[in-house]
Amino acid sequence: EVYNPNGKYRVVSTKPMPGTRWINLLIDQGCRVEICHLKKTILSVEDIVDLIGDKCDGVIGQLTEDWGETLFSALSKAGGKAFSNMAVGYNNVDVEAANKYNIAVGNTPGVLTETTAELAASLSLAAARRIVEADGFMRAGLYEGWLPHLFVGNLLKGQTVGVIGAGRIGSAYARMMVEGFKMNLIYYDLYQSTRLEKFVTAYGQFLKANGEQPVTWKRASSMEEVLREADLISLHPVLDKTTYHLVNKERLAIMKKEAILVNCSRGPVIDEAALVDHLRENPMFRVGLDVFEEEPFMKPGLADMKNAVVVPHIASASKWTREGMATLAALNVLGRIKGYPIWNDPNR
Ligand code: DGY
After folding, report:
1. Which CATH superfamily includes the segment(s) 113-310?
2. How wide is the angle at C-alpha 237 spanned by C-alphas 187 and 164, nearest 5°?
3. How far is 205 from 117, CA to CA, in rounded Å?
4. Against a cut of 0.90, is the pTM above it?
5. Which residues form a coiled coil (predicted)?
6. Is there a smaller number of Cβ atoms within 10 Å at the N or the C end of the chain?
7. Is the ipTM of this complex over 0.85?
């Protein structure tokens, strides 16, 4: 699909993206926009080399693609200056290789913060109240009437929510759980973010002024402290060498037997095979997963676990957010092509 065929700059999007704002803004600035409609979900490096062709000024790509040496070299040979991931995470991008070829790299933070935090909250509730299990029970025609023991789950109010990684998304999630469900908070953040401190202090004062029971909060000095103390834990770190298998067999073992673990960050942050064993051995332990170690696959056994809620990497999937991500990605590429500082450069 080609828009504005005579445009001066050739910008390729490896996938159709939501909305038209991103297309219009590129066209308005003199770009020819080419959108790939190949009928396969994940494009190979070879597919993308073909798309780049002989002349290409910039590419908007997806987190399922392997943006490394081969692609940046091909883009550079085609005269390209910019690549933007349509994602905030960029573990699929070799930023060093991009730098080597003087290609700017962009990502799309900010517009997905609340949407992603809302999915983490949804998974937390779905796991706590066994919603998916109960839904399956109804659909299977098994409901014979109200029973005192039917699908008894966890009350979140007054329990402790643990957040690992208190950046934009982790902090938004923490606020939702503390404000919405009056949970106590414990969090651990490598980067010493002060976002949450300010919020919880102000919120504590508000509760006090209104005569309501205050929530407690603390910044943990280790991840283990969070894992040991929290009833519900949500993971929000970036994926890099230091966070690969951050939650492993040993760390699962120190969590409460009835804890809930939620992951909307990246799959490899959890050792998924160890998680499956843990779920099997601890039926009261529950998880809500949006991401998997080797997407699109799940580790054997996970799909059979009643104590797991699984969804296909949809944390940022609201219409507003996805259109915003597409627009930011287009702005990133455009900014560089036109010689402006790139909009969102994860290098900075
Ligand atoms: C991201 O942006 O990194 C998410 O995983 C997809 O929205």
Report:
1. NAD(P)-binding Rossmann-like Domain (3.40.50.720)
2. 15
3. 24
4. yes
5. none
6. C
7. yes
